[in-house]
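Help! Submission page says 'invalid entity' but I think these are all valid:
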Amino acid sequence: MENPGYRSGSFDGLHHPSDDDDDDEMVDIAGATLDFSSTDDVPPLSTAGLVSLNSTGMNGNGPSKLVDPLEDLVPGVGTYEDFNTIDWVREKSKDRDRHREITNKSRQSTVALLHSLCDAFSGWLLMLLVGLMSGSALAGGIDIAAHWLSDLKGGVCLTDFWFNHEHCCWMSNETFQERDRCPEWQSWAELITGKSEGAFAYIMNYMMYIFWALLFSLLAVTLVRAFAPYACGSGIPEIKTILSGFIIRGYLGKWTLIIKTITLVLAVSSGLSLGKEGPLVHVACCCANILCHLFTKYRKNEAKRREVLSAAAAVGVSVAFGAPIGGVLFSLEEVSYYFPLKTLWRSFFAALVAAFTLRSINPFGNSRLVLFYVEFHAPWHLVELAPFVLLGIFGGLWGALFIRANIAWCRRRKSTRLGHYPVIEVLVVTAMTALLAFPNSYTRMSGAELISELFNDCSLLDSSQLCGYKQVNTGVGNSLADRPAGENLYTALWQLALALIFKMLITVITFGMKVPSGLFIPSMAVGAIAGRLLGVGMEQLAYYHHDWVIFKGWCSQGADCITPGLYAMVGAAACLGGVTRMTVSLVVIMFELTGGLEYIVPLMAATMTSKWVADAFGREGIYEAHIRLNGYPFLEPKEEFEHSSLAVDVMRPRRSDPALAVLTQDGMTVGEVESTHYSGFPVVVSQESQRLVGFVFRRDLLISIDNARKRQEGIVSTSQVFFSEHAPSQPPDAPPPLRLRGIMDLSPFTVTDHTPMDITVDIFRKLGLRQCLVTHNGRLLGIITKKDILKHMAQIANRDPDSILFN
Amino acid sequence: MENPGYRSGSFDGLHHPSDDDDDDEMVDIAGATLDFSSTDDVPPLSTAGLVSLNSTGMNGNGPSKLVDPLEDLVPGVGTYEDFNTIDWVREKSKDRDRHREITNKSRQSTVALLHSLCDAFSGWLLMLLVGLMSGSALAGGIDIAAHWLSDLKGGVCLTDFWFNHEHCCWMSNETFQERDRCPEWQSWAELITGKSEGAFAYIMNYMMYIFWALLFSLLAVTLVRAFAPYACGSGIPEIKTILSGFIIRGYLGKWTLIIKTITLVLAVSSGLSLGKEGPLVHVACCCANILCHLFTKYRKNEAKRREVLSAAAAVGVSVAFGAPIGGVLFSLEEVSYYFPLKTLWRSFFAALVAAFTLRSINPFGNSRLVLFYVEFHAPWHLVELAPFVLLGIFGGLWGALFIRANIAWCRRRKSTRLGHYPVIEVLVVTAMTALLAFPNSYTRMSGAELISELFNDCSLLDSSQLCGYKQVNTGVGNSLADRPAGENLYTALWQLALALIFKMLITVITFGMKVPSGLFIPSMAVGAIAGRLLGVGMEQLAYYHHDWVIFKGWCSQGADCITPGLYAMVGAAACLGGVTRMTVSLVVIMFELTGGLEYIVPLMAATMTSKWVADAFGREGIYEAHIRLNGYPFLEPKEEFEHSSLAVDVMRPRRSDPALAVLTQDGMTVGEVESTHYSGFPVVVSQESQRLVGFVFRRDLLISIDNARKRQEGIVSTSQVFFSEHAPSQPPDAPPPLRLRGIMDLSPFTVTDHTPMDITVDIFRKLGLRQCLVTHNGRLLGIITKKDILKHMAQIANRDPDSILFN
């Protein structure tokens, strides 16, 4: 049982509060053994400058405070250690103080006025830069590079080897029959052996495919392990945690950015069942974090920085799907914790800038904003809601199953020897993927291409296998009317069915490996395949049985009533919804892909069903499940605290424990204070009365005492420490006392012992607290930290409370 | 100076805490003298049922509490008076308790399980009903009726008098030249005198136009005054206040709904410069409030009800503009206070249902979802951002000016005799409007028609005056190329310029009259006219001077480079943005009108400029200005509290005042308690220690004592009242003591006296408090109420603190 008081996570041993930020210790986080000295490339921002205590507002004396030059300039006071939670209230208060100071100064001189104007517009400028950088350099670059590398697995362009397949054939001057069979593009077999047909050439291409896949994935995993362990995974669980106020130094640093960008391209090109959309959010957040250094306002304030990161998450989705509004709603719904209206507006701006930058780069070559441009010709009918809801159920079931299986697999990786060989794991999975994927054209193509093909509405002249309908000339009705399936289509359906099973299985073991990997595309692919299969099934049913009662009245012979592409789209939304539990943002992203309001209703029906079904098996989405797996201190804002416990049941000390460790406002010595163990202490009037005066962090205490020792004469271990307004009376021969009122938080949050925990949790969430004191009839009784709450919640849910690792 | 303690507004005299809810007193609110007995048609919901104290959670003893049958069933405890602010924390806690109870019961029996399922889905069902009702019965009905009545001012359909002009001519079998000059539709002059041309006929039509306008407005204002005074205005300021937690009984009642629906049609038809979009939000909220009665969960809980109302606001905008996503963002950005993610998702659902219901009714006759469907052919060029920003500046200036002028006029109405003759005012303004509007075809048509015409992109065959270009056959370039303006267009421009001045002036005095009136359409009309004028100007400039350097490279001769309709749209967005200060939602609504992502950038540039320019003159939008004008207790969530005062500067009692009125936890008698004056009291251990135990409302105290007198023997004025766990020792002959711990809030919020006010304001906003106690070193010092904060803010802004009327 933990002792009462406020401990900062399980890392007390490793990260002693007075440790330097750049210590070289190894910490196991997210299953990876990380070397802090190499990842901590971003200077610990909060210690980068002096935090004037006079302007933090939390010292509470306001403008009338007597300035104490010693206290005011202690560097490091008010900053945070790594793997700790920030205090939102303190950060926001600091920012308001800074703003107030600038506003006051701006009335005095023109220079100051200009400075204040710059300050006011720096947020917008930052957003512009984030949008431009994420949209162009990264998203565009990643798209182009991934396209080229993916095609390299199949062959090479003879005229210019840096052209991808499509581009190569566009540039071709020669005539050729099929669009993608130009003479300039040669498969590896053709290049090496000169033969493009036959079993030998096939095997040759097969081998080269596997070779490139292994090479890419080996490069990716090696780079990640060597330079930036934080670059692995999708990054969204960690970003959610960071946005909720946690500090992981280096997670959004420049090395992470560089390595993640490169390895993302490699991982996607290696043909693994992963997408680049989720990691793009991480990449955009890295950009934003690095750009924050340019502006003092954002560099020095953890809360303000998180506002920018929220906007960056929107930018990430905006460039991933070309859906700026969907991106903003994704940030609001899925990743952000504190999302004021100002941030909404700025995110929207940044998302738009990014989307337009991307469009001007035109990586998809279709001058469209969106990844999958879809245009459907036929409306849908109310009867079709039934299959759409079916797809929703499938999506929900698959989402729930996927989360369980993936978490079980990741837990296995953490707890068994499997986790010790990440490179081998990646290579084995890549080899398996390549081996199984090559023979099937639907798994050989990249996830995005597959989805694009499945969403496609067959036109009359479409040569793709999926549009292999028999031509019938009934003479009546629409030229796009439903037609009977032909040989080609049946083959395609078999292949799709195999692809579905393959994708479902391989994605479970792929997500969570030590390479950058997103879930959006694989989830959507699974759903799109299922949807397309159902769609074609419905279409054939309607064609052969248009006299059935369910088709009566809307689907006569020769009419174009079923659009299999729409089913694929609905299926994709359902599966993505089941896995991530996104709702509004998902529907809006899909709406932005099609541009037609009328397809919102099917999407909504499927997403809603999928969420309900998946929620029935477990309320957590994949990101929340990974957060919990890694023991991050994340207080889910969506879930209600349902239990009827009171603050007194959760607080420390428990009834059997020794009393709470407190400091008294006078009468303690420097030595006594230095020999304490907890991270923070309430300060009381006296041990007897237990009347609360304030709260002080051990880190700030030690920094201040250290500083005082250096700068003030006569501070020894027996010097008295006092937190009261006036120095206590002392014997004349005593050493001079040390006044530490300046570092004390004079407005600690308190709740009474009778406060129901649901209210307490609400307060923690809404105000972003990291601790709260508990009183009874005006006397201090105990303390509740965010970790205590999370442990309590884990206990209620019959989980191991010790799985919560950080504070 | 007010006395220390917690007073409930300035209405103490009128609304004594123990008064019945249905008192007949007259209260002046929003400038209207209202008769409560007639408007309070909706039963005061919160007193409708018994609120079991055992399930409120705020009594704090949790599940282990000994059940005290007397305390548990006191009706009315925990409810609110009219014109008071709710306590969000208490309401949400109540709902969680209710939910917990249902969940616990659901494990016991199948019936209870079904009940719990019903309860879980009741929110969705309610949303469906709100969407259906608002979309169909109201929005559709209002559209159709307003269309018909508006046309009635000009003439009548001979075949079927209930057809409007357009419908009448559609139904016509005869041939006629101009689309809207069918023989079936006869102007009044034609009908009465048989002549359709000439001065006499013109005057005849003019007179009839004025007659109908006066008749409609007279009817509207009379109905509003007689049956539902709350039906006047746009309703958005009041809804914002209600959503922030204020209670105005009857504001969303069934009479308000009926009367507002009818009078809205009349007011719009009378030709006054007002729109129906804002009031539709009020109408949708009334629907939602009435439908809430069907579900206990929403009927009995003020916080839950507000979630539904937030969604209803989204529905209102969704049906007004056919923009469901924009509607949801409008609710989030502009009107809502507490908008959890669950509400976001449900609002979206309701908004979609409403939009599709409206579409199936098809009131605009174009089977489009949107009010103004726009399709532009030409893209815009970067150079055009300059005129777009100019439009933004115009919009911002006009917005700021409009708000000032309108508020000055409304203040005048409140303070002078003008306010005593609302009927005459409405009639005079209607007469003026009709007199001036008839001669100009652009003011004669309704606002929505005008905007629609201005947004329109001229095709070659367009016969409208605005498309009166000279036909040139250059032989080169686009058939839609820029052409020189002809006679007709010059006439149109003159008329538009006059219409602009007229609309700008008349809207100032129209908004705020005692008829339902929205601002969206008039504001957009002003901006659209200005935009179209600028657009045509730019077009002619480009035509005649395409060799100028600004047109070089993108606007050669014979090209279609300038789209005046787009300018009109940007201007409309800018002006609406300047008046309401909407940002994201405005851009998204406009985006949903056009459906093209590429026009977002001009819209965004104009909206941003407009907001910045308008904010430079005053940070309040029109709705906030009206809220302040009416003295509602609204704590603006968007604005930061900038001043550096501390809690001790704001709290009551002030330094010179007598000490805070408190109750002690024992030792007081029933008589002493009953003779108190304030609305609420902190309960302390003893007068000496001032250690806080809890907080109790006078209303709850009086209700409980009343109840105890009726049900418990021997309660007299000298009976002791105690709030402690155990009864105090008493002399044996004393009357039995009364235990009131159950009605005491055992977890009152406290802050220390040193807490900066910015943090305190944040706490109030985020938690939705109505009061907060102030302590110093564990002793109770004072109290801060929402009203105190608002007064303090008014004082800082150099406004009259007494303008804040309510608590």
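Support: the input was valid. A stray whitespace character was the problem, and the output above is from the cleaned input. Residues 110-152 of chain A form the longest helix (43 residues).
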